[in-house]
Amino acid sequence: MPRLVASVEGVEIQHVQLQKDRTTLGRRPYNDIVFDNMLVSGEHCVFELQGIADVYITDVGSTNGTYINGQMIKSRRLLRDGDIIAIGNFKIQFLASSAPEKPSPEKPTMAMSLDTLGLPGTSGTMLASLKVLSGTSAGLEVPVVKVVMTIGQPDVAVVAISHRRDGYYVAHMSGNTTPTLNGKPITAQAIALAHNDVLNLAGTEMEFCLRAR
Fold first, then answer.
1. In the chain, where does DSSP find H-type helix?
2. pLDDT, tens digit (0-9, with 9 covering 90-100), for 39-93
3. Helix-then-strand count for the chain, H and E
4. Closest listed residue to residue 142, CA positions, set 4, 45, 7
5. Confidence check: pLDDT of 107 > 70
6. What is the distance between the alpha carbons of residues 7 and 153, in angstroms, rounded to a whole number?
7. Does residue 186 sit in helix, strand or coil?
8. What does the angle CA 95 – CA 97 – CA 137 come to, to the nearest 5 degrees?
């Protein structure tokens, strides 16, 4: 199944499998893929799946344009395996087929304090996002919209952010460079995230932010 791999400053932030006949991308929350950034139009572009693996992309009148391999597209375009789509500060690689999924290792259950339970008013009921603090994309905010979201540079440093009933957690998944949380190493053991925590992934700093639904 064809998929999209989105990144910012070389850090992968989202993987999307194109399962629907029509997948929309834009800044507005009703899109299938949401990039909450002013360089992205409310309704920016659309991906259309035809047959088993043919995917076409169309810019739907965006303000700043949609680029494929450095060239702005003016009309509907068939995507080729490995094409790089640029939308604002986001880079999206198109892959014609899905990579086989690896089973996640079992993690031990940890005791938690009562004040971290997922009740109204706690982090388990709030929306999360990551704000880029370094590089040319500083200030860019990426919503955490999946139950488990992996971010990082493959083979360098990849972490998983998981949304559980009692809040959000981060764990080191792969890579030879140890990521940090507020200057302390992130291991395979999940660590609870708090508002304004700072992640460092091989030199790229991102702030974890929470806001009420």
1. none
2. 899 999 999 998 877 899 999 999 999 999 999 999 999 999 999 999 988 999 9
3. 0, 21
4. 7
5. no
6. 9
7. coil
8. 25
Q: Enumerate the β-bridge partners of residue 161.
A: 149, 170
Distances (CA, A) of 182 to 193, 206, 207: 10, 10, 10
Q: Cβ neighbours of residue 52 under 8 Å, at least 6 residues apart?
A: none
Is the pTM higher than 0.70? no
Residue 127's closest CA among 206, 37, 195?
195
How far is the C-alpha of 77 from the C-alpha of 193, rounded, in Å? 41
Rounded (5°) CA angle 99-17-2: 65
Mind spelling out the 3-state secondary structure of 60-111? CCCCCCCEECCEECCCCEECCCCCEEEECCEEEEEECCCCCCCCCCCCCCCC
- Angstrom distance (rounded) from CA 200 to CA 178: 9
| Tens-digit pLDDT profile for residues 120-179 | 344 556 788 898 898 777 888 888 877 888 888 878 888 889 888 888 999 998 888 999
* Rounded Cα distance, 103 and 81, in Å: 25
Structure tokens given for 185: 């190493």
98-105 LR contacts (CB < 8 Å, sep 24+): 98/1, 98/2, 98/3, 98/17, 104/148, 105/188
